[in-house]
Design a protein that fits this description.
Oligomer: heterodimer
Structural class of chain B: alpha+beta
Radius of gyration of chain A: 26 Å
Low-confidence stretches of chain A: none
CATH topology of chain A: Porin
Mean pLDDT of chain B: 87
Largest interface: A-B, 45 and 49 residues
Strand content of chain B: over 45%
CATH topology of chain B: Lipocalin
Largest sheet of chain A: 12 strands, antiparallel, barrel
CATH architecture of chain B: Beta Barrel
Mean pLDDT of chain A: 89
CATH class of chain A: Mainly Beta
Radius of gyration of chain B: 20 Å
CATH superfamily of chain A: monomeric porin ompg
Number of strands of chain A: 14
Strand content of chain A: over 45%
CATH superfamily of chain B: Lipid/polyisoprenoid-binding, YceI-like
Shape of chain A: elongated
Number of domains of chain A: 1
Strand order of the largest sheet of chain B: 1-2-3-5-6-7-8-9
Distance between the termini of chain B: 34 Å
Number of helices of chain A: 3
Strand order of the largest sheet of chain A: 2-3-4-5-7-8-9-10-11-12-13-14
CATH architecture of chain A: Beta Barrel
Helix content of chain B: 10-25%
Shape of chain B: elongated
Structural class of chain A: mainly beta
Largest sheet of chain B: 8 strands, antiparallel, barrel
Distance between the termini of chain A: 68 Å
Number of domains of chain B: 1
Order of helices and strands of chain A: HHEEEEEEEEEEEEEHE
Chain lengths: 296, 186
C-alpha cells in the first residue's frame, strides 16, 4: 500500500514538473496558431485587367487611374498599327474604410461612372478560417454623350446604366490567385430595339506571379444575350491577356485585348471586335497617394 | 494519521503546479511599432497581435509575431513589406527568445518601474542574430507592462531593397515594443 502512495505521489510530482516545464517557445507557437492571418496582395491592384479584381483601396489610399487602349493592330502601318488611336478612362478612387472604397471616373466613350466596392469576406487562416474573399461591386454609369436624336437628350433616366457584381477570389499560394465574377448589368436605354436591357455575365480570371513585382494576368467575360442583334450584328465576349508591373506606389498593367471599352456596361455590352481578329494594345496606370494620415 | 499526512503531501504536490504557473505571464495583444525614416518618406507599421511569454522566476522571455499582421499608415506599404522585403510567404514568423538579466533583483510583489537588459536571439526574415537591448518593466497589481525601443539594421537580417527605391527605405529601422502581461492560466 505504501509503495502505491509513493509511486502515486512521484507520478503527480513529475506531472506537475513536466507541466511547468512546457517550453515557452512552443506555447508561443500555439498561441500564434490561434491568431487569424488574412490573405493580402491577392492581386496587385483594384483591376485585374479590363474588369475589377477583388482588391480594394486600403483606408486612406487615393488611387488615380489612367486607362488607355489603342486601336486595333490590324489598322495597319497607315495608323501605326493602332497606336495613333486612343480610348481613355480616368478615375479617382478612395478607400474610405478598411472595407469600402468609392470613386468616380470618366471614359471617353461618353460615360461618367460612380463606383463602390465593399469587401464582405476576407480570405483567412488560423482562428478564423475563410477560404475566399468576397467583394460586392456596384456601379452606376451615366451616358454623357449628345445624341443625334435631340428628343432623347433630355431623358436623363435613359442615360443610366447599373452594374452589380460579386467578385469571389482565392489566393491559392503567393503566386496564384483566381477569381470568379458573376455580373448583372441593366441598361435603361439600349442602342436599338432588339438589344437586351439586362445582361448577365460571368467573369473568370487570374494572375500568376513570376517575380515579387511582376505577374501574368488573364481575364475572360462570358456575356449572355449579345448575339443575334438587329441588323445581323453581334457583340463579343471581352478577353484580356496581360501583365502587372509594380514599382513603388505605381502599378502598370499592359495588355492585349479585344475591347476598347473600359467600364462594365460598355465592355460587356458593346465589345464589337472578336478576340481572334481585332486585338489591340492597352495599358492601365495606377498611382496611389496616401491621404488622411494618422498622427502617431 | 499517516494516511492524512500522505493525502496532504499528495495534495500539496498536486497544487504545486498551479504555484509554478503563477511565475508565467502572457499576452497575445502586444504591440510592435516600427518606423523607417528617410528624407524621401516615412514608413511605419504596427502589429497588435504580438504573442509573448515571460517567466518572472527564470527571466525567460519569448516573443512570436506573424509578420503579415503588420498594419501600415502608408496605403501601398503592406504589399511591398510582405512581398519584397520580408517575403512573408517564405518567412511568416518573426521571433525572439531570450532572458532578462538579473531578474532575481526585481521584487514582483512590489509595484514599480525597473530597468532591465534583455539578451537573446532575434529571428527576422529567417536570419537569427544575438542581441542585447535595454527595456523597462513596470510591475503593477496583477499585470506587468514591458516596453523597449531599439534599432534594427535591415542588412543584418538580409533584407534587400531594390535599387530603384533605395532612398525610400531606411537602413536602420526604429522599433518600439509595448506589452501588457497578465498571469498565464492554462
Amino acid at each position: 500500500m505504501k509503495k502505491i502512495y509513493l509511486i502515486f505521489s512521484f507520478a503527480i510530482a513529475f506531472l506537475s514538473y513536466s507541466l511547468a516545464q512546457d517550453d515557452l517557445s512552443s506555447l508561443t507557437d500555439q498561441a500564434l496558431a490561434n491568431t487569424t492571418e488574412y490573405a493580402s496582395g491577392t492581386f496587385f491592384t483594384t483591376r485585374l485587367l479590363t474588369g475589377q479584381s477583388s482588391e480594394i483601396m486600403p483606408q486612406g489610399g487615393l488611387d488615380f487611374r489612367i486607362h488607355h487602349r489603342f486601336d486595333e493592330f490590324k489598322s495597319g502601318f497607315g495608323k501605326f498599327y493602332g497606336l495613333d488611336g486612343s480610348f481613355s478612362y480616368l478615375s479617382l478612387e478612395y478607400g474610405f474604410t478598411k472595407f469600402m472604397m468609392a470613386g468616380f471616373g470618366r471614359a471617353n466613350d461618353g460615360y461618367f461612372n460612380f463606383l463602390d466596392k465593399i469587401k464582405l469576406l476576407r480570405q483567412s487562416t488560423g482562428e478564423k478560417n475563410m477560404p475566399i474573399t468576397l467583394v460586392y461591386y456596384v456601379e452606376s454609369a451615366v451616358d454623357g454623350k449628345t445624341y443625334d436624336n435631340s428628343a432623347k437628350n433630355n431623358d436623363f433616366t435613359g442615360r443610366l446604366n447599373f452594374t452589380h457584381q460579386l467578385i469571389i477570389s482565392r489566393m491559392f499560394n503567393s503566386r496564384l490567385s483566381l477569381l470568379l465574377a458573376p455580373t448583372f448589368v441593366h441598361r435603361n436605354m439600349v442602342p436599338a430595339p432588339g438589344y437586351k436591357n439586362d445582361l448577365y455575365a460571368l467573369g473568370i480570371g487570374g494572375r500568376y506571379k513570376i517575380f515579387n513585382t511582376f505577374s501574368i494576368n488573364v481575364e475572360y467575360y462570358y456575356v449572355q444575350g449579345i448575339k443575334n442583334l438587329p441588323g445581323g450584328t453581334e457583340n463579343f465576349n471581352p478577353v484580356s491577356v496581360g501583365c502587372d508591373i509594380q514599382v513603388a506606389s505605381h502599378v502598370f498593367q499592359i495588355m492585349v485585348t479585344n475591347t476598347e471599352r473600359m467600364i462594365e456596361p460598355s465592355f460587356l455590352g458593346q465589345t464589337t471586335g472578336e478576340f481572334s481578329k481585332s486585338l489591340r494594345l492597352g495599358f492601365n496606370i495606377s498611382q496611389v497617394f496616401t491621404l488622411g494620415k494618422k498622427k502617431k | 494519521m499517516c494516511l492524512k499526512i500522505k493525502i496532504i503531501i499528495i495534495g500539496l504536490l498536486f497544487f504545486s503546479q498551479f504555484g509554478f504557473s503563477q511565475n508565467r505571464y502572457f499576452t497575445k495583444t502586444g504591440t510592435i511599432y516600427f518606423m523607417s525614416h528617410t528624407d524621401a518618406i516615412d514608413i511605419d507599421g504596427t502589429n497588435k497581435q504580438v504573442v509573448s511569454f515571460l517567466d518572472i522566476k527564470t527571466g525567460e522571455m519569448v516573443f512570436g509575431v506573424l509578420v503579415k499582421s503588420f498594419e501600415f499608415t502608408l496605403a501601398t506599404a503592406s504589399e511591398h513589406f510582405n512581398e519584397t522585403y520580408m517575403e512573408t510567404h517564405l518567412y511568416p514568423k518573426a521571433s525572439f527568445k531570450g532572458i532578462i538579466k538579473d531578474i532575481q533583483k526585481i521584487d514582483f510583489s512590489k509595484p514599480g518601474k525597473y530597468d532591465v537588459v534583455v539578451e537573446g536571439s532575434l529571428t527576422i526574415h529567417g536570419v537569427t542574430k544575438e542581441v542585447s537591448e535595454k527595456g523597462t518593466l513596470d510591475v503593477k497589481e496583477n499585470e506587468i507592462e514591458a516596453s523597449s525601443s531599439f534599432q534594427v539594421s535591415i542588412n543584418d537580417y538580409k533584407i534587400t531593397v531594390p535599387k530603384l527605391v533605395e532612398a525610400r527605405v531606411a537602413k536602420i529601422v526604429d522599433v518600439k515594443v509595448n506589452l501588457t502581461y497578465k498571469p498565464y492560466q492554462k
